[in-house]
Amino acid sequence: MREVVIVEGVRSPVGRRKGKLNEMRPDDLAAVVLEGLMKRAGIDKALVEDIILGCVSQSGEQGGNIARTAALIAGFPDFVPGVTIDRQCGSSQQAVHFGAQAILAGDMDIVIAGGVESMTRVPMFSNMQGAQPSGKLTDQYEIINQGLSAERIAEQWGFSRQQLDAYAVKSHERAQNAIESGHYDKEIVSIEVPEEHSSFQKVATDEGPRPGTTEEVLAGLKPAFDEQGVITAGNASQMSDGASAVLLMSNEKAQELGLKPKARILARTVVGSDPTLMLTGPIEATKKVLAKAGLSIEEIDRYEVNEAFAPVPLAWLSDIGGDPDKLNVNGGAIALGHPLGATGTKLLVSLIHELERSNSRYGLLAICEGMGMANATIIERLS
Fold this sequence. Notes:
about 375 residues, transferase, Thiolase family protein, Thiolase_CS, Thiolase_C, acetyl-CoA C-acyltransferase activity
């Protein structure tokens, strides 16, 4: 039976919106990550059979199939194709699933899966050009923005503003500790950002975490979506710029090339969920992927559940019965940022490295997605 392994994975540092990566075109940024991935893997670019990148706002510099243009910029031969996909916040995680499926089917042996998003240069919703939802959709469902969905989740699960802010503070503390401890150093490809007078600034550290973030500071922020609500800029994910990618192979091909894979993909799933609550999908996706893998949540050593808003991982913990000490142990999107199309493989890369660092076996990744969907993936570290 064919088996899909992850040979290598890298990511860019994540920049704040209008921060250190604001002068970097997203196609150029993705190209740097693709090139860095292949350099670390140590194999010929000509061996790659497809490049699948997630990107949510596919307009402007992110339009025109950025997977293909980034591959050409990165120096891949012109016969290596590329395709860009949008499954909202889980786009690059879905890229991994599609790549794995191609390998399992026997169509391919080597695929790159990843994603990119510059929320500075290509603002969120710019691809919508002001279009409103179809009346045929709104006749069937109440379509609201994700911030209001997060408000409803907080209300339904009974989370207070203090609980959400306390979770956000922990995210910043964990992220800052991870950076200071060098936990992210091995997975990051540094980016040379163009500056004035033909000079470059080297960016190698995530820009999002704010040292000294406290509950008292966050308590002073006004609600962002509902005047009487609990969701603020402080307990929601940051708009960010970034790119990430993993190199997938059949285990047979990795052995043939003399490569030592980092992990195997054990199980994958994607689900639809209530498009009004929108962000609860990781709960059902986790139940489904655990069943596919034949594992219990107690057997999973680390979980990455994207921190789109603080109620999302908290509701997940509540319903799944997970261990909070295994969740987002090095911080999440509240502190580190959420470059939409890149987040899936960014978190996967970090999960792989965390399993290596902690000498652990199983990792789970789950991400909520716009309009009510979620992907979940379980990996096993290979020693």
